[in-house]
Write a structure and sequence with these properties.
The protein is mainly beta. It has two helices and eleven strands. The protein has one domain: glutathione-dependent formaldehyde- activating enzyme (gfa), CATH 3.90.1590. Strand 8 (88-93) and strand 9 form a beta hairpin.
Length: 158
Amino acid sequence: MTRPPIPAPPYDGGCLCGAVRWRLSARPLAVNACHCTDCKKLTGATNLLMLLATREAFSHAGAVERWRKRADSGRELDIARCRVCGTRLWHEPLSSPALVFVAAGTLDDPSWAVPTSHIWTRRASPGVTMQDDAIQVPGQPVERQALMDAFTAIYGDA
Ligand SMILES: [Zn+2]
Ligand SMILES: [Zn+2]
């Protein structure tokens, strides 16, 4: 497929009401779509598109509320939402404190955010598009590195 190029950082985003703004000052490590049941519930949509990024390159302004979710695997993560409008903005995985997963739909310009990986594809809703160059993982990936390798294979190291 033809993909728009990944623009140079920084990337800015925020919630619906504008009370929370965030900035990512480095290229994402992966652009991952999760089709698990929890992500359907939490987004109210068919899947959740996330930018995997290093937390040291991520900052925000404005008040967020965090809600701790426990996955079937036992892994926990904090879900950060705007305290005013409730927009779901990013996840902080407790098992990987160096990483942050930013909801790609909250980018000011999400036009370049095309998945390089899809996980939990066995739960994918009918009609969801899978790019032919993106990897597909039926369940939870054993190693998150596989998602980052998929991104690098498509976009290179730059
Ligand atoms: Zn808000
Ligand atoms: Zn999920």
